[in-house]
Amino acid sequence: PLRHINGYLELLIKRNNSQLDDKGKHYIESIYEASSHMGHLIDDLLNFSRTGRMEMKPDNIDMNRVVKDAMTILEPEMRGRTIDWKLNPLPSVHADYSMMRQLWVNLIGNAIKYSRKRDIAIIEIGSEKESNETIFFIRDNGAGFDMKYAQKLFGVFQRLHSTEEFEGTGIGLANVNQVVKRHNGRTWAEGEVDKGATFYFSIPK
Predict the structure, then answer these.
(1) What are phi and psi of 87, to 5 degrees?
(2) So what's the pLDDT on residue 84?
(3) Which pLDDT score is estimated for 153?
(4) Are 153 and 172 in contact (CB under 8 A)?
(5) What is the reported pLDDT for 168?
(6) Which of 17, 26, 57, 186 has most Cβ atoms within 10 angstroms of its Cβ?
(7) Cα separation of 95 and 183, whole Å?
(8) From residue 90, how far is each of 107, 198, 199, 204 by CA, in Å?
């Protein structure tokens, strides 16, 4: 149905564009943006659903390699940006490789997105070893968030910024939380408005 909507909008623009006033053209643009956003939302929901159902194949994985793979996927998002990466050595963990890669794509993608208003974005990735778990974190100097809303961050459709300010569907961090839960770990975050944020997750040993 969304492809039909966009297809007919394109036909309308091609055949009747000269008959439309500025308000009519604005309406078409708004419909197109809304249907495109719905398409992204459906894709993200399908991905979220698959993550909850897919078979896990845990193995001893090198988290440094996982992060590197995730950054390769996100290269288009980095073009034209000045990013100071602080990549600390990460330990290996027993986890599902593809799930961990998707988790880092979501976390690193968020850090890139929410720090884009900085002339120089600073993104740090690191870890801490506890007696019964390994804690990983990603820290940025971006938009941050108000800690009183921290419990909303990992919920489906929960966003603390408008789509006009930062695009998104509100699924990414819910996906992170789901992946971590399937590994019997924890997720949490710390932040301050306009002073950046740090996202944490743990993987049991």
Answers:
(1) -105, 105
(2) 97
(3) 85
(4) no
(5) 57
(6) 186
(7) 7
(8) 16, 17, 16, 15
In 3D space, the residue among 49, 51, 169 whose CA is nearest the CA of residue 102 turns out to be: 51
Query: Under a CB-based contact definition with an 8 Å cutoff, are residues 56 and 181 in contact?
Result: no
For the stretch 128-153, pLDDT in tens is 999 999 999 999 999 899 898 777 88
CA distance 140 to 98: 24
- Phi and psi based region of residue 196 (left: phi greater than 0; alpha: psi -120 to 50; beta: remaining): left
Helices and strands: H and E segment counts in the chain: 6, 7
The length of the chain in residues reads: 205
Separation of alpha carbons 26 and 100, rounded Å:
41
Neighbours of 21 (CB within 10 A): 8
Q: Which DSSP letter does residue 79 get?
A: T
> Are the CB atoms for 40 and 74 separated by under 8 Å?
no
Residues of the chain below pLDDT 50: none
Can you give the pLDDT at residue 156?
65
pLDDT for residue 83 = 97
Model pTM score: 0.76
C-alpha to C-alpha distance for 168 and 158, rounded to whole angstroms:
10
